[in-house]
Amino acid sequence: MAAEIKTEYPDKKVVLIHSRIGLADPELLPSVRQQAKEVLLEKGVELRLGQKVVSLSELQLNVTQRNMEVATERGETLTTDLIVCCTGLKVNSAAYASSFSDSLTDSGALKVNQHLQIQGFSNIFAVGDCADVKEPKMAYHAGLHAAVAVSNITNGLRGKELTSYHTGNITMLLAMGRNDGVGQFNGLKLPRSVVALGKSRDLLLWKSWREMKQTQP
Question: Is 194 left (phi over 0), alpha (psi -120 to 50) or beta?
Fold first, then answer.
């Protein structure tokens, strides 16, 4: 988010406050996480790492308001016109919590086995963010889940052996503005130019249009 804003509005001051020293998903290669930090610094984003915002819940988030003050736990006070909160994401379990209360994790996800069947059920599958699979939450993974679930529904009806889902090496492309990005494919670090060309320019929208068998307007 910080890189996207700074790319489109290079004259604006953008400050990223993060509770950890390392940026991006912990399952990424250390070199990829370091590269994400380098991209932000090159774009002019100011970093405040290893610290949290004090009383975040009391601040006016995602709404423009002049001269708001943000205090960090290290005693620094920043003045800003907009606070974008990118933390605290939790699975929205409202649609299924009452029906699968015995199969829920503390985060609201559904416990699944290797076939992505919900714990205690042989005919109900969970895919995407609501499935308690130990891997980064990405649309790419949700698509892989869906393919396994569809195969297992078909195999189950035909009395065939079910397919297991395996996480494998992490593949993740992080768009950092339309002209830059970092990432890795199957556990191997990718050049920034490859990520920018492959994802950052259009966020892989062409792939979604193709999968839906539609023509992009």
Answer: alpha
Please list the pLDDT of the chain residue by residue as tens digits (217 residues). 999 999 999 999 999 999 999 999 999 999 999 999 999 999 999 999 999 999 998 999 999 999 999 999 999 999 999 999 998 778 999 999 999 999 999 999 999 999 999 999 999 999 999 999 999 888 889 999 999 999 999 999 999 999 999 988 889 999 999 999 999 999 999 999 999 999 999 999 988 899 899 998 8
Task: Please name every residue paired with 48 in a beta bridge, in sequence order, or none if there are none.
Answer: 17
Residue 108, both tokens: 């609201």
Q: Half-sphere exposure of 152 toward its Cβ, with a 13 Å CA cutoff?
A: 22
Q: What is the 3-state secondary structure (H, E, C) of 167-203?
A: CCCCCEEEECCCCCEEEEECCEECCHHHHHHHHHCCC
The H-or-E segment that residue 15 falls in is strand 15-18
Residue 72, SS3?
strand
Nearest to 199 by CA among 216, 182, 217: 182
The model carries a pTM of 0.83
